[in-house]
Amino acid sequence: MPVYHVALFKLKPEADPSKVKQWQALAEGMVGQVPGLIGLQAGAPIALTAPMAKGFDMGVVVHLDYVESLATFFTHPSHEEVNELYKDVCEMGSTIGYDIEF
């Protein structure tokens, strides 16, 4: 059964926009590298919902084949690489994730 993992991020005020784009591209580039990862989309809030974003600047939706693939996703070397750049551009402790099975 497919799983969608959703995370929200708050960028550091001094985050370099080029590093943010690099982080987004690196995250999206994990598709095809991580077993069980079907898709990953990252982006800023759309204008209609931006006032409701409560300070979150970026969102990520991760589509995995099974809930068991979450462990593979979180421990994969490419996720570690994304996480290192995350530390440069995001405030620590500002993420929230929901795992939803359909």
From TrEMBL:
Q: Which residues form a coiled coil?
A: none
Which superkingdom, per the lineage? Eukaryota
UniProt xrefs under SUPFAM superfamilies: Dimeric alpha+beta barrel
Q: Which residues form the Stress-response A/B barrel domain?
A: 3-98
- What Pfam families does its record include? Dabb (PF07876)
InterPro entries xref list: Dabb (IPR013097), Dimeric_a/b-barrel (IPR011008)
Report what the protein is called: Stress-response A/B barrel domain-containing protein
